[in-house]
Amino acid sequence: MDRRTIFQLIAAMPVAGALPAGSANADERSTRLSKLNLSELPPAWVGKEQIAILIYDDMTPLDIVGPHYFLSALPGATVHLVARNLDPIHADGLTLTPTATFETCPADLDVLLTGGGVGGTLAAMRDPATLTFLSDRGARAKWVASVCTGSLLLGRAGLLRGYRATSHWIGRPMLKNFGATEVDERVVFDRNRVTGAGVSAGLDLGLSLVQRLRPLDFAQTIQLFAEYAPSPPLDSGTPDRATADVLAGARQQLKAFVDAVNVMGPGAA
Amino acid sequence: MDRRTIFQLIAAMPVAGALPAGSANADERSTRLSKLNLSELPPAWVGKEQIAILIYDDMTPLDIVGPHYFLSALPGATVHLVARNLDPIHADGLTLTPTATFETCPADLDVLLTGGGVGGTLAAMRDPATLTFLSDRGARAKWVASVCTGSLLLGRAGLLRGYRATSHWIGRPMLKNFGATEVDERVVFDRNRVTGAGVSAGLDLGLSLVQRLRPLDFAQTIQLFAEYAPSPPLDSGTPDRATADVLAGARQQLKAFVDAVNVMGPGAA
Fold first, then answer.
1. Complex ipTM
2. What confidence category does residue A124 fall into, taking pLDDT thresholds of 50, 70 and 90?
3. Quick check: is B105 catalytic?
4. Helix axes B61-71, A61-71, angle to 10 degrees
5. Average pLDDT over every residue of B148-177
6. Among B105, B141, B91, B113, which residue's Cα sits nearest to residue B205?
7. What is the distance between the alpha carbons of residues A247 and B76, in angstroms, rounded to a whole number?
8. Which of A41, A99, A154, B3 has the fewest CB atoms within 10 Å distance of its CB?
9. How far apart are alpha carbons A89 and A16 in whole angstroms?
């Protein structure tokens, strides 16, 4: 085979790595605004936020994947998934990989966000390294946010003292243990603290934060991308909508969690 | 040091592994119904479904993490995250770890579910191994489900021919390319095919499936656990609610995706 034939064969080969079998080309892969050429976007849509989302074993993944959808769409922003170390995080059958540790996470954050859970959140509330990380980054972050019982973790780290806040409905009455004032709303803003109700409230909180970080038309565009026009097939999403039996059963399931939080002291700092 | 002293010291030590620093005890860790002792639950709440969720690079994680929350709560069910191989899946900045491959995934499934995306979904729609997996498992699964543009992937695998279906709003008009009939609804059931609208519709779809798989009071309990009473802060979640400018901009962002799907043939089988 002569050199010319070899070159012709090479030229006809797909570019290894760039376009593996089945891959989409660059244009087609521009799936999210975050992946577009920033120079093509309205300048006001582009930022440079440093965003840290705490992840830990036995948390509820949807608590953070909801807001992650919205926050990771911010053009120019960097989202870190932060854990004690880079070991995989196991949570409700999903395995998530951290991208930063308590040490390597940027010192000055635009957004610090934590999700909740039950057993995993209790463990985090008892973990000095986690509390130190939260209180340190939270003291300087522009926005300090939580979803679900993540607000109890913020409280335990001393970050909600004197603030109005919400939580998963089971956690709301315990906010006072940490010096916060319970508010029965889906997303609560008090100065730079942003707390969400249980699990699915992370979507509302994520979009609410995007509203604060970008122009209105950007937030509207991301809501349209997410087709976020929810339509629950049942009407049992809050304690006042659920039947008495369903509510009593759920409270029973969560009793050990409530008892464990209530014997904790107010926590750090 | 005598043996008695050594035993006393050992007895005073925390049990390594069982209760690491900061860990919650077993009661407290019963965070989800799926983690409870099954014998304590009403027998009708317990099943033994085999559920497979397809994951692939550059998909939209929220598409599957929404339904995963609900499906992984089914007591007794097993949820597999299935990919071509066990390499980590990278999607919008999150790294997910598969638990099964196309080969090791159970042959007979109760639920087969795929999410969507844009670039990643196009690549999956062009990948013979993915299409073969879907058409094989989908031919026997009790429920075949998708969220977002995942319905285009089901269509490409030949699984929606002759069915009514929905998709992300951008994908809905393309369902006919694959022999399906477009329906402008949030979650569409047609026989055993269950398709959802864009991204966030995965929560509605997940809860809808739980309703079919368990008694009503179980589904209501999970909705209450998720505090699924959504309250979007903006009203731009569908093409008819968004402003003309926002819709036009979003369509422009997604034009390469639409063009790429429209030049594809109907696909497998």
1. 0.90
2. very high
3. no
4. 160
5. 98
6. B113
7. 22
8. B3
9. 32
| Cβ distance of A233 and B23 shorter than 8 Å | no
Count of C-beta atoms within a 10 Å radius of residue A106: 15
Q: How far apart are CA B48 and CA B45, in angstroms?
A: 10
Whether the per-residue pLDDT at B251 is higher than 90: the answer is yes
The end-to-end CA distance of chain A, in Å, is: 75
* Full DSSP string of B40-76: GS-GGG----EEEEE--TTB-HHHHHHHHHHHTTSTT
**Residues of chain A neighbouring B203 (CB-CB closer than 8 A):** 200, 203, 230, 232
pLDDT at B9: 38
Average the pLDDT over B88-111 and give the result: 96
- Please tell me which residue in A77, A112, A131, A148 is annotated as part of the active site: A148
CA–CA min distance A148, chain B (Å): 9
Give just the sign of the alpha carbon dihedral A39, A204, B77, B135: negative
Determine contact, residues A222/A210, Cβ cutoff 8 Å.
Answer: yes
Cβ count near B49 (within 10 Å): 18
Q: Give the pair of three-digit tokens for residue B97.
A: 């770890």
By CB neighbour count within 10 A (0-12 exposed, 13-18 middle, 19+ buried), where does B224 fall? buried
- Distance CA(B74)–CA(B41), nearest Å, equals 11
Share above pLDDT 90 across residues of chain B, in percent, rounded to a whole number = 82
Q: What is the spatial distance between Cα A10 and Cα A210, in angstroms, rounded to a whole number?
A: 46
Q: Identify the H or E element spanning A91.
A: strand A89-91
d(CA B226, CA B206): 12
Q: What is the pLDDT of residue B163?
A: 98
Query: Are B122 and A31 within 8 A, CB to CB?
Result: no
**What backbone phi and psi angles, to 5 degrees, belong to B96?**
-110, 145
Nearest CA-CA distance, residue A122 and chain B, Å: 6
Instruction: Output DSSP code: residue A235.
Output: S
